Amino acid sequence: MTVSREEAIDLLDKLVRIDSVTPWLIPGGAGEGEVATFMKHWFEEFGLDVIIEEVEPGRPNVLAWLRGTSPGPTVCLSAHSDTVGYANWADRALVPEVKGDLMIGLGVADDKGGCAAAMLAVRELVRTNTPLAGNVLVAMVADEEGVSIGTEHLVAHHADEIDLAINLEPEGSHVIFGEHQGFGWIDIIVHGVPAHGSAPEKGVDAIVHMAEVITRLHRLDTTTWTPNPDPRNGRTVFHTGTISGGTDYATYPNKVVLGIEIGTQPGERLTDRVAEIEAIFDEVRQQEPRFSGEVQVRLDRDPFTGQGNEALLAALADATEAVNGTRSPVTGLNAWTDAALFQEAGIPTVLFGPEGGNYHAADEWVSIPDMIATTEILRQTVATLLAAPVHSAG
Ligand SMILES: [Zn+2]
Q1: Ligand 1: distance of its center to the CA of 263 in Å?
Q2: What long-range pairs does 4-10 form, CB within 8 A, spacing at least 24?
Q3: Which of 17, 323, 329, 387 has the fewest beta carbons closer than 10 A?
Q4: What pLDDT digit, counting tens, does each position of 268-327 carry?
Q5: Measured on CA atoms in the order 82, 84, 85, 89, is the torsion positive or negative?
């Protein structure tokens, strides 16, 4: 049995129409409260035990339990219910549109397509009366687009109850991710000495010194990171994000702050990147003795390296072959997801999800057929992992 196209479109349409912009990114954003209430009622309609856990006011996780027919491990299907903002969308963001095989709307792929696939997969397990030796926990978490307070809360309070996790993010059911990059948000701060414009012997120009740092960072990227991509996780992420500094036209700038996003490959830590930035400071100081710089790490997320997830990978790959006709390979990703937090909590984890595009931009889309395929792949994967022993008569 497979969910119909109408059922898939209907649920996803409803999820997208509920504003759940993360207030971490967009102050005043709606948060996940309303979508969590909708999900709770939806799960309760077919008998799941549902709890809402308020991580912060207006920032709930929804945990829906399908209890097995006999004891066994618990498989967690997890997706995030928040979205980025919709400044790029005019007024179309929350009005999903179906064009052929695509649905277009805010968060339709990232990650409400993943939410819908997990929700529909667990409902199919109920509808088909599949005997399960173990439990399914569907976790719809808050704030992945912010700083992942939802998954942090989930693993802090429930890691002991979860044996395996499939984290759903939209990359397409033709590929399975067993690892991905980590990343850091780092502020690079260069200090100058403020002085009257007529006093160059007193002033130290923080902006000119920062320019030297930026030039060298860019060179490190073009000579080291870009030409040497990780075979599975791609080029190490690096880009500048924000810059601010100086006080006025008439004064030597006292300070510049550059915000960057920078990646780490499995086996690396953010401290490796910080050491490279500090080596750049030393270089600039040789040329500009009055240079003064410091690094402040704002967010540090380790890479994801799946461990102990062999049974999960095998069941998932078998299901992709059964549903899609081709076996999805296991590879890595040049982005970070909550999968890293599950694995860090000791839960064997894989990353998987329906195919989409234009994430965090206007005209974000998801493939409806691939969302339906993902639903069926999840259903089969859980049924395999929690296969109840067959009791024969006599
Ligand atoms: Zn996402």
Answers
A1: 17
A2: 5/368, 5/369, 5/372, 7/120, 8/116, 8/120, 8/368, 8/371, 8/372, 8/375, 9/98, 9/103, 9/368
A3: 329
A4: 999 999 999 999 999 999 999 999 999 999 999 999 999 999 999 999 999 999 999 999
A5: negative
For ligand 1, the distance from its centroid to the CA atom of residue 170, given in whole angstroms, is: 7
Domain boundary among 258, 280, 301: 301
Domain count, the chain: 2
Ligand 1 centre to CA of 113 (Å) is: 10
Distance CA 374, CA 354 (A): 6
What distances in angstroms separate CA 166 from CA 10, 75, 312, one per listed residue? 24, 8, 8
Q: Nearest Cα to 268, choosing from 216, 167, 336, 169?
A: 336
The answer to whether position 204 is within a domain reads yes
Question: Ligand 1: distance of its center to the CA of 142 in Å?
Answer: 11
Picking from 266, 301, 336, the residue at the C-terminal end of a domain is: 301
Q: Is residue 390 a part of any domain in this protein?
A: no
Spacing, Cα 128 to ligand 1 middle (Å): 30
Ligand 1 centroid, distance to 360 Cα (angstroms): 9
**Are 42 and 166 part of one and the same domain?**
yes
Express each pLDDT in 330-354 by its tens digit: 999 999 999 999 999 999 999 999 9
- What gap in Å lies between CA 314 and CA 317, rounded to an integer? 5
Same domain membership, residue 197 and residue 70: no
- 144: CA distance to ligand 1 center in Å? 6
CA of 371 to the centre of ligand 1 (A): 15
Give which of 67, 70, 51, 52 is closest to 122, Cα–Cα.
67
Residue 238 within a domain: yes
Tell me the CA–centroid distance for residue 83 and ligand 1, in Å.
8
Query: For residue 91, how far is its CA from the centre of ligand 1 (angstroms)?
Result: 22
